[in-house]
Input
Amino acid sequence: MEQAHSMTDEGEAGRRALWIMLRSVKGVICQGPKLDSGYFLHASARAWLSAAVNQDVQIPAEKPRTVFRTSESNPANHAEQHEGQHYSIPLQEVKVVFPHGLPCRFQMQMRTFNESCLMVRKPALELLGYLKNTSFAHPAIRYVIYGEKGTGKTMTLCHAVHYCAKQDWLVLHIPDAHLWVKNCRELMQSSYNKERFDQPLEASTWLKNFKTSNDHFLKEIKTQQTYMWSKRESTEKGRPLGEVVEQGLTRVKNASDAVGVVLKELKKQCPLGSFRLLVAVDGINALWGRTTLRKKDKSAVSPEELTLVHNLRKMVVNDWNGGAIVTTLSQTGSLFKPRSAYLPHELLGKEGFDTLDPFIPIQVSNYSQREFESCYQYYLDRKWLQHERASTEEGRKELLFLSNSNPWQMERISAYL
Amino acid sequence: MAAPMAGRLAALGRRLAPPARAWLPGLTQVRWSRYGPSYLEPEVNKEVYRKPLEGMSEEEKTEWELKTLQPIKATASNVTSSVFSDPTISKFTNMIMKGGNKVLARSIVTQTLEAIKRKQIEKYHQASEEERESIECNPYIIFHQALKNCQPIIGLCNVQKGGKTYQVPSPLKDNRKRFLAMKWLITECREHKHHRTFMHEKLSQELLQAFNNEGPVIKRKHDMHKMAEANRAYAHYRWW
Output
């Protein structure tokens, strides 16, 4: 401020020299109009503006176009000004945080572009706002992300998972609940409860991925009771939870029960406050729908007869505190539901809706003008849109029309252009 | 005896202008259209409609006036005014199509283009700065160049002379060259590859190989050329 007052005494040249010095103090310059020293703006306002433009590399100088990338890679700092922009997650972090969460087309895109970029969108910002303000003394709030096909529900969930992982929460991420109710090759009768069925393959894959993402927690959390796996194998009370996971991985027959034990322990210990728990389930409508699995006598298996589904249902009830439950409705992998169904009532059914009620619904819709422009610029930048007409105004209008701003459709169309 | 006669009449019919060859002895119209001779072809390209009337020359202006008065044929359902439409790709899709299943054929072609693009972009991102300029990422350019590399220059025709059929080297029309290139690519993928691999994977591999002037389809083209070279002696049997 003392430097500013001395400016009036010096000549124009001296003023310019001071402006060049002060250029680096961007915070002061940005508050130009609010400062009471009026001479800040009048003389070299244009110099300041051009200086600011030169520093922010993303904005091209010719005409104001949408900025499509942001360097803010921590979801905790994402705010409304980052809406529509892509932020990148380092590939090492992706391997740890998302061993099994991302959609497969996104994984292909990651491999092709050699980077993983998520778009910051309004529903995700809303969800992050709620998660930031969760009170851990109250019961866990359920958030249900719903929307039409291909609008970005799974990616919103992944954004929330990334935020919680960065905030050092324990993330219980079930990538697709529909995979547990269909196409099961080995369905065994559960040893714990004769009525129920085990799914060793699905349970062991999930345990493996869970271990990758939450290794450090598994060493700290201790079991609170003894578990007998068989006549000779048991896990004592007070052993780290990692041992239960190891047991499930080595003895694949007990994998589903190991999953059940892990869920039970986490739910019991989360209210004690030593860690925060995020239960992220994609395609939660699978838990209350129908399955395509059949018993030996060709009669249909209902979801509650599966151990994994039974235990997960208990997890999603809000009788524990110290975390949050974020879920997604999905018609894409669902069974016996029409393609046009996307509302919670239609996909969850009466039973599911009653169990999840009360929940906070978060709707995800197609891209806005700004988001579409951002996605288009991102694809152009990554050289994904190769067709010579795709970079013209005509091509852009046609892409907008063909995809109807639907993210899934946009991705599919730009794949072959 | 009949084949050269029909061939001569066909050649004559081709040389005469359309109104004159409406009827010729020995030539029966097999394909005919409900449109009369005054119907004009539709113009699908949007750029043409954006040209201002003042900017056109005299003949173009008369042509434009004619188009406003004459009746116009309906557009075929596989023709679009999309800026991304490509007649070669449409032809290729039609050749892949089996049993009228255009949806499947189109999905195979789009997946092929995507596969080519992915492979090339992965290579691009992993290559060094100097190599990056030489890597072509545009799947359409790769497709067209591969097709051009597979087109034979000279073909063989069956000519019957003195009871024996000879393979006579003869020039090929552009359409025939394009057809042969596409046919060879598709047959190669269908027959000589493992049946459990997806068609788009096989096609993308073949197209990339043809783009680099290697692979079985290029070899087949060279075999065709060698046969034509070997049968050079029979070239005089061709009279057209």
